[in-house]
Each structure stands twice: as structure tokens, then as C-alpha cells.
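FAQ: What does the model actually see?

It sees only this:
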Amino acid sequence: TMDWLIIPGVIVTCIGLGLLLYIIARIWWAKKQGLSDAGMKAQLQAAIAWNLAAIGCSAIGLMIVVLGVLL
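And it is asked to produce this:
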């Protein structure tokens, strides 16, 4: 069986979720700093790339878990 895939999948998923929490905290901090429009725009643009990476990481982790359960 492929039970050994479940734990690594959970770890990858948790890394993705941790990244999402980091991004939320980073944007919240930037908002509290009262940055200018250009500064906030730069922060949000950087956060979009990290956000996509975090969601992809979580999705890959969930796929690994599903493979471990099904196979």
C-alpha cells in the first residue's frame, strides 16, 4: 500500500497553510504601517506571488494525501 505518502502529504499541506498565514500576517503588518499607495501596491504584488505558491503547495500536498489513501 501507499500509506507512507500520507505523512509527507500532510507536511507539504501544512507548509502551504503556514505560508498562507505568513502572507496574511505580512499584509496585515503592511496595512498597520500606513504605507503609501506605491509601497502598499509593491507589498500586495509580492504577496500575490507568494499566495499562489502557497495555494499550489497546499494543493500538491492534498493530492499526495489522496494518492496515499486511494492507492
